[in-house]
Design a protein that fits this description.
It contains 13 helices and 15 strands. The protein is an alpha/beta fold. The strands form 4 sheets. It has a 7-stranded mixed beta sheet, sandwiched between helices. A 4-stranded antiparallel beta sheet has the order 11-12-15-14, covered by helices on one side. Helix 1 packs antiparallel against helix 10.
């Protein structure tokens, strides 16, 4: 391998949100990798740093071209330059879009359990969360399209937030399912905001399908949020894009992003994103292989050592979704107990909605020595939980 993902980088003392924990604690919660980003990105930023002048910055043509090439060659989505709008992050884009395209008390549909900040984006902007729960059968999650149509058909529903691939369950939504969403959304005059930030972290041989690529209906109703930040561990650089094919929707989104002052890049935002998409593919392929091996090791360990926990096998993200219903108690109680007794800090599934209340989410985007420490803490914590 060209890149060393076994290397441990000490992140304590760096003002890391993830690692701002007690000395004995091991954080495996927030979706933030413990790997250094691709050297090619670091080099591009170094060159920009050494220039020494950091004034107001515009989005260069190279940034647009990098997004167009990456999505066109890797994901089969043809993007016109005019469709892209720079944004400082996917969450600012979602919040702005909810605020711009709704009026107070309208419904925004989400499919739960789902990324917890979606709730904030909706409620903080005066709208109502309308849940269409995913079906959970035989350790698999699927969409309930009948329930989804009922929710989209509500005259008070104006938006849907689609998580593709889905966080936290790790599901890659297939083309037929996405086409059904697009048809239903168009039928009921609902705009779909597709959060596709996890799209490049998929198992080897598994590819995600961009929502906007599936059909004309999907394209017409879509606002796709994209970024290199999860893929290349660049979240702190505040760099993302919104892709909106429909010109009327695009103008509204563009106007909202500029009104909210989240449409201008910092001096490194476009540089890092461009370098990632132009030069980061070899690093990404090795990362995907490494994370896939991590998944297999974690799954095998849990099945052997903690059979009371069921691993939900996903095809995307570096997040393990663990069914802990057999342990008794709620996920908040179990997660708090693990942290208190072993120092292992994982996410309680309940934060992703009540339908996640029997699960834990564990981030395994870290060197093997780190996640093995986490697994041993998990096994020890479960034994203590059972004997308490």
């Amino acid at each position: 391998m060209m890149y060393d993902f076994d290397q441990v980088t000490d992140r304590r003392g760096t003002d890391s949100s993830k690692w701002n924990v007690a000395e004995n604690e091991l954080p495996m919660w927030v979706a933030d990798m413990d790997f250094q980003t691709a050297p090619e990105i670091i080099e591009a930023m170094r060159v920009r740093l050494e220039h020494g002048v950091f004034g107001y910055t515009e989005v260069p043509d190279a940034w647009y071209a990098a997004y167009q090439r990456w999505w066109g060659t890797r994901h089969g989505l043809t993007i016109e330059k005019d469709w892209l709008v720079f944004c400082t992050g996917v969450i600012p884009a979602i919040s702005t879009t909810v605020r711009k395209l709704t009026t107070p008390n309208e419904n925004v549909v989400i499919q739960t359990p789902v990324y917890n900040v979606f709730y904030n984006c909706i409620r903080n902007n005066g709208c109502r969360v309308l849940e269409s729960p995913l079906r959970y059968e035989k350790q698999q999650f699927t969409m309930d399209l009948e329930d989804l149509e009922e929710k989209l058909a509500d005259p008070q529903t104006s938006l849907m937030l689609l998580c593709n691939p889905h966080n936290p369950v790790g599901k890659i939504w297939d083309r037929d399912t996405l086409a059904a969403i697009g048809a239903l959304a168009k039928k009921h005059h609902v705009t779909v905001i597709a959060d596709e930030i996890h799209c490049d972290i998929t198992d080897p041989g598994k590819d995600y399908v961009p929502f906007a690529s599936v059909s004309e209906a999907c394209r017409e109703v879509s606002i796709s949020c994209m970024a290199p930040t999860k893929t290349f561990n660049l979240a702190g650089l505040q760099t993302a894009a919104v892709c909106v094919p429909d010109p009327v929707l695009r103008h509204k989104v563009w106007r909202g992003l500029n009104t909210d002052e989240v449409a201008e890049p910092n001096v490194f935002a476009a540089v890092a994103a461009t370098a990632a998409f132009e030069k980061g593919a070899p690093w990404l392929e090795e990362l995907r292989a490494y994370i896939y091996e991590n998944k297999k090791t974690v799954t095998g360990f849990i099945r052997r050592r903690i059979p009371e926990i069921t691993v939900i096998e996903g095809e995307a993200t570096y997040l393990m979704w663990l069914d802990v219903s057999a342990l008794g108690g709620g996920s908040r109680e179990i997660a708090a107990y693990l942290r208190e007794k072993t120092g292992l800090f994982v996410s309680a599934g309940a934060v992703y909605g009540e339908h996640g209340g029997a699960f834990l989410r564990m981030n395994i985007a870290c060197p093997k020595s780190v996640y093995m420490d986490g697994l041993n803490r998990l096994a020890d914590g479960v034994r203590q939980w059972q004997s308490r």
